[in-house]
């Protein structure tokens, strides 16, 4: 009888494992992302769980989900906070409060006529935190979002509990020569164009918007090794094995110059890992938060 019960329990465990494997999302070529994007949980519909913050000539859109230790997700350039659709449920399931922000000029957020700068967008993040009465949060940054998060950590370390930087550069020398014929980049750009037309207050201006963001990417940020050495929050630098934009040597440079920073390489994925293999990305993200994020 004991053997029979044990066999049934083992069978159920194996069934759950197999189901989880079948449910695991793989979109290495970004075909699914281009076709349908990523679905976020329904927006909260009570209190001040989503809205706009008026700051420095722009309306910055935000949304919050759940309760618990706060985590701010900062998306990549030309995208919007909906690109975190595979990460939000994982964070909610593990008891976190999730704060999404559309960067200035991206998604639902507007901009003024000033050139884009990472410092200005970092100040937008602090304005959202002030509106939500968040003294401190952990940051998960992807690409341009990682640059914004790192600058926030450098300039306002008391507001950043810990910072996870995926696909991050701190000066233009960290960028690779981009292959304009890469089909992944074309599919990602196609999805961004569709989302921009749907979400933006200036839906027909994507190409002007992309050009303005591109100027920022090519010339900023410009942090030196000395600047990096003054960052005092816990940091994990995360680099994809096949990153299309960021040089491996630059990720190593960041980890070497930021005090006590750690470096993690994600195998088999590119700059779009949160979309390509979200389970792999989420495991790294949640392990980091478990180690460093203050618990409520």
UniProtKB/TrEMBL annotation:
This is Pimeloyl-ACP methyl ester carboxylesterase. Residues 70-175 form the AB hydrolase-1 domain. InterPro entries: AB_hydrolase, AB_hydrolase_1, AB_hydrolase_fold. PANTHER family: AB HYDROLASE-1 DOMAIN-CONTAINING PROTEIN, HYDROLASE, ALPHA/BETA FOLD FAMILY PROTEIN.
């Amino acid at each position: 009888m004991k053997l029979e019960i044990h066999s049934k329990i083992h069978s159920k465990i194996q069934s759950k494992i197999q189901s989880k494997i079948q449910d695991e999302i793989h979109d290495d070529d970004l075909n699914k992302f281009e076709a349908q994007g990523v679905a976020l949980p329904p927006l909260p519909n009570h209190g001040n769980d989503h809205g706009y913050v008026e700051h420095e000539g722009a309306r910055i859109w935000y949304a919050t989900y759940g309760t618990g230790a706060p985590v701010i997700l900062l998306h990549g350039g030309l995208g919007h906070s909906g690109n975190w659709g595979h990460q939000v449920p994982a964070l909610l399931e593990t008891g976190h409060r999730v704060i999404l922000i559309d960067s200035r000029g991206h998604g639902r957020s507007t901009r003024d006529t000033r050139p884009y700068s990472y410092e200005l967008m970092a100040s937008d993040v602090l304005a959202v935190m002030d509106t939500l009465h968040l003294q401190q949060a952990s940051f998960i940054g992807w690409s341009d979002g990682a640059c914004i998060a790192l600058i926030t950590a450098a300039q306002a370390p008391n507001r950043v509990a810990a910072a996870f930087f995926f696909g991050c550069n701190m000066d233009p020398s960290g960028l690779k020569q981009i292959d304009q014929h890469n089909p992944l980049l074309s599919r990602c750009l196609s999805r961004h164009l569709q989302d921009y037309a749907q979400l933006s207050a200036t839906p027909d201006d994507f190409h002007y918007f992309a050009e303005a963001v591109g100027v920022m990417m090519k010339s900023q940020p410009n942090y030196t090794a000395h600047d990096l050495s003054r960052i005092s929050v816990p940091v994990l630098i995360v680099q994809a094995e096949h990153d299309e934009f960021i040089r491996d040597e630059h990720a190593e440079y960041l980890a070497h110059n930021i005090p006590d920073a750690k470096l993690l390489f994600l195998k088999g994925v590119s700059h779009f890992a949160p979309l390509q293999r979200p389970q792999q990305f989420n495991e790294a993200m949640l392990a980091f938060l478990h180690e460093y994020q203050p618990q409520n």
